[in-house]
């Protein structure tokens, strides 16, 4: 069995047609048909049912395809590691991020990494923490900037880079806009813009827990996924919301962020770096080292005599 055969198998599973698969593989159809037939003979199973409407993977074929994808993934990782070399000064780095990391952290990290490793190609993709962790576990991302704390099950290592706290976002015309501090109990009658339970379960759970501890059942008027969307809904006057303090950088002129003492004292949030322990490429290691060094808290100045 050769990697070439596994690649042919995957392309055929995508097209379900020998002629189209052969075109994609830049080869003639008869050699492809022969190669698949030899692979079936070697494995002792039929991988595809030949139907009038086209090909269909057999149950055995579906299992083989799953392992073929994994095998080709690791083969590509070996090739990539060889190309990057021991230093990790060239290659490709796939970075995922949540929207709230763009306020300050991500631009700083990417700028510094680009300066130190100009020959590394950066591929950056925005998504939710849940999706980014899933992709890290599936090895389709190298590193990710996710919301902290991480409540979802994952094999990734989580390192808090940018500690933060939660604040109340209100429209400028709200009765709370000029307050220095607001209690969660004061929000019982306010329409509330929450985080999607499905797409942002971590933040949803944290905010709902805080309200529960305060003995308040919020009046959910709307749910959203991204912090920037939530701020826009607040600015539109649709309600109030709990957001990370760093979001004040992107809040519009008609939004005020007010302290909520119960949240600042009991719930710690922030942006964290997530890396799968199996992803040990030099390029990834360089990014992790740079991020942790750059965001390491500076020691407090010595007191003057």
Automatic annotation (TrEMBL):
Which CDD domains does the UniProt entry name for this protein? PBP2_LTTR_aromatics_like
The organism is: Achromobacter pestifer
What PANTHER family does UniProt report for this protein, alphabetically? HTH-TYPE TRANSCRIPTIONAL REGULATOR CYNR (PTHR30346:SF28), TRANSCRIPTIONAL DUAL REGULATOR HCAR-RELATED (PTHR30346)
Origin, by domain of life? Answer: Bacteria
Pfam family membership, one:
LysR_substrate
Does this entry carry the keyword DNA-binding? yes
* Keyword DNA-binding belongs to the record: yes
Q: Which UniProt keywords apply?
A: DNA-binding, Transcription, Transcription regulation
Protein name per Swiss-Prot or TrEMBL: LysR family transcriptional regulator
**Which GO molecular function entries does the Swiss-Prot or TrEMBL record give?**
DNA binding; DNA-binding transcription factor activity
The family database entries (Gene3D superfamilies) matched by this protein are listed as: Periplasmic binding protein-like II (3.40.190.10), Winged helix-like DNA-binding domain superfamily/Winged helix DNA-binding domain (1.10.10.10)
Record's GO cellular component terms: protein-DNA complex
Q: Which family does it belong to?
A: Belongs to the LysR transcriptional regulatory family.
Residue ranges constituting the HTH lysR-type domain according to the UniProt record: 1-58
**Per its UniProt record, what InterPro entries does this chain match?**
LysR_HTH_N, LysR_subst-bd, WH-like_DNA-bd_sf, WH_DNA-bd_sf
């Amino acid at each position: 069995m050769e990697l070439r055969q596994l690649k042919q198998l995957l392309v055929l599973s995508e097209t379900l047609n020998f002629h189209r698969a052969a075109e994609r593989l830049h080869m003639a159809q008869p050699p492809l048909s022969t190669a698949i037939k030899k692979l079936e003979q070697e494995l002792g199973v039929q991988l595809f049912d030949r139907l009038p409407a086209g090909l269909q993977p057999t149950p055995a074929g579906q299992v083989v395809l799953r392992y073929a994808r994994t095998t080709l993934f690791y083969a590509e990782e070996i090739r990539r590691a060889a190309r990057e070399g021991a230093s990790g000064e060239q290659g490709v780095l796939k970075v995922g991020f949540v929207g709230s990391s763009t306020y300050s952290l991500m631009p700083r990290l990417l700028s510094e990494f680009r300066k130190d490793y100009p020959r590394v190609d950066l591929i950056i993709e925005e998504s939710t923490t849940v999706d980014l962790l899933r992709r890290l576990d599936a090895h389709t991302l190298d590193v990710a900037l996710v919301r902290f704390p991480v409540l979802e099950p994952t094999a990734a290592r989580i390192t808090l880079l940018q500690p933060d706290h939660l604040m109340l976002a209100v429209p400028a015309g709200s009765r709370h806009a000029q307050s220095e501090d607001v209690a969660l109990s004061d929000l019982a009658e306010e329409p509330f813009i929450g985080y999607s339970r499905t797409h942002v379960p971590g933040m949803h759970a944290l905010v709902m827990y805080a309200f529960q501890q305060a003995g308040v059942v919020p009046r959910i008027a709307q749910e959203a996924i991204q912090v920037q969307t939530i701020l826009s809904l607040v600015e539109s006057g649709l309600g109030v919301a709990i957001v990370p303090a760093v979001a004040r950088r992107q809040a519009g002129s008609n939004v005020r962020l007010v302290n909520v003492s119960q949240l600042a004292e009991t719930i710690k949030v922030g942006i964290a770096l997530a890396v799968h322990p199996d992803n040990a490429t030099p390029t990834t290691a360089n990014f992790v080292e740079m991020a942790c060094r750059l965001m390491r808290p500076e020691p407090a100045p010595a007191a003057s005599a």
